[in-house]
Amino acid sequence: MKQDTGSTQRKDRGFTLIELMLVIVILGILAGVTVTQITGVSQDAKIAAAQTDIENIKMALRMFEVDMGYFPTEDQGLEELYTKTDEHRKYLEKAPKDPWGTEYGYRAESEHEMDFPDIWSNGKDKEEGTEDDVVSWDVGEESEGISSTGTGSAGTKSTGTSKEF
Length: 165
Description:
The chain is α+β, with helices and mostly antiparallel strands and 165 residues long. It contains two helices and five strands. The chain has a single domain, classed as Glycoprotein, Type 4 Pilin. The protein has helices spanning 2-12, 17-68; strands spanning 105-107, 118-121, 134-135, 146-147, 162-164. It has a five-stranded mixed beta sheet with strand order 1-2-3-5-4, covered by helices on one side.
């Protein structure tokens, strides 16, 4: 009768260490999957926001060109779009910053054989010419938003892939 009492008391004590460890591992896996999914959505949202910002900058540049007859020089940069002068109005309310907190790149003379200035975000890594750049060129090449060219700092193309729109 003591053996029956011992086994009954053991079942009444609760979970074993192995059962608790198994539950903790399962919860850890679920948390990891959830964080991974949320992070991916966050990056996609930032890329979409950068694409929208670049389109807004392009629209402001077009309005500037219609009013002034030229695009801002590289020395003037995008600052010319959010600064009111005696010659022109403001075309943007404030200095545009990408979703990663850095200023957008501007090159008055396109390095991509376009009749429009180059505009880009250096992306999450904040390095020009890398695969996470969001760029305004190569619009004609539709490949799921990925371009096979980036921009190099000396006017050369890099071999990384850039987000485009």
